């Protein structure tokens, strides 16, 4: 057990070539990788191995330790979370695990959400989206369950790929490097869009997002807090993420 992690960080930041210190940091933060992989695994099919997620997540953790700059004012846990999740998503993309039909259904659902929102001038209800799709409510909820895996990669990737020249939304928002006035303006606009969109959500939808992303609860734990089934929490999460993704895509396409 490492008692004084800050002392190790202080020493490592002075001497990044010290592999023993790097190993101590890696061992200390491995539980974060397991937690993130476990949370992401909830939305993935059985064909995806949790061990693969953890292996890719470890690559992200190593990258985070090697590149972390404590002078940027960002907590390492925040920085590492982004790098770990990004590495896991990279691995999933390489596997190309998502069937084309599922992508098409996700796009269809996203289009219906956007159309219903334009029609009513607000975030649409489940019933309104189901009517837009000409589906009964049971079929609509089944569709939400089917495309829930897409919510893992819906915001990440809405702005671009993960090459050096492309920057994803989460990276853009969390990156503390000096930015051009144009970049600062874009980030401010994206944040404003997300904040406004979240405020327009129904109370239970806002609660799901807050508990999942800010309190780091699992879908099952959120269900216990809100008195909903885990399946219903998953449906709410999927619909909200697709709604936000549509907003971001509209913003990007307008540029």
Major β-sheet profile? none
Name the beta content range: under 5%
What is the structural class?
mainly alpha
**What global shape is seen?**
globular
CA radius of gyration is: 20 Å
Q: Summarize model confidence as the mean pLDDT.
A: 81
Give the H and E element order: HHHHHHHHHHHH
How many strands appear in the DSSP assignment? 0
Distance between the termini: 50 Å
Contiguous helical run count: 12
How much helical structure, as a percent, in the residues?
A: over 70%
Low-confidence stretches: 154-174
Write a structural description.
This protein is an all-alpha fold. Helix content is 70%, strand content 0%. It has twelve helices and no strands. Helix 2 (19-41) crosses helix 3 and helix 3 crosses helix 4 (76-95). The chain is globular and about 60 Å long. It starts with a helix and ends with a helix. The model is unreliable at 154-174 (pLDDT under 50).
Give short descriptive properties of this protein.
255 residues; mainly alpha; 12 helices; globular
List the helices and strands and how they pair.
Layout: H1 5-14, H2 19-41, H3 50-67, H4 76-95, H5 100-120, H6 126-132, H7 137-146, H8 169-174, H9 181-199, H10 203-214, H11 219-226, H12 230-254
Helix pairs in contact: 1-2, 2-3, 2-4, 3-4, 5-6, 5-12, 6-7, 9-12, 10-12, 11-12
């Amino acid at each position: 057990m490492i008692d004084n992690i800050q002392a190790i960080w202080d020493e490592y930041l002075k001497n990044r070539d010290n592999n023993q210190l790097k190993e101590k940091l890696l061992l200390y933060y491995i539980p974060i990788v397991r937690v993130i992989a476990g949370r992401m695994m909830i939305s993935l099919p059985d064909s995806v191995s949790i061990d693969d997620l953890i292996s890719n997540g470890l690559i992200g953790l190593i990258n985070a330790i090697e590149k972390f700059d404590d002078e940027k004012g960002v907590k390492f846990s925040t920085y590492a979370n982004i790098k770990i999740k990004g590495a896991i998503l990279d691995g999933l993309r390489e596997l190309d695990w998502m069937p084309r039909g599922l992508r098409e259904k996700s796009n269809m659902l996203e289009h219906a959400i956007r159309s219903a929102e334009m029609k009513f001038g607000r975030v649409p209800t489940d019933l309104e989206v189901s009517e837009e799709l000409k589906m009964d409510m049971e079929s609509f909820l089944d569709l939400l369950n089917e495309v829930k895996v897409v919510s893992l990669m819906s915001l990440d990737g809405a702005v671009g790929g993960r090459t050096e020249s492309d920057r994803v939304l989460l990276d853009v928002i969390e990156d503390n490097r000096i930015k051009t006035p144009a970049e600062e303006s874009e980030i401010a606009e994206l944040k404003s869009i997300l904040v406004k969109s979240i405020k327009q959500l129904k109370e239970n939808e806002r609660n799901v997002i807050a508990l999942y992303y800010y309190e780091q609860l699992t879908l099952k734990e959120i269900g216990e807090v809100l008195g909903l089934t885990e399946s219903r929490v998953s449906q709410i999460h999927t619909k909200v993420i697709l709604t936000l993704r549509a907003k971001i895509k509209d913003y990007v396409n307008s540029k």
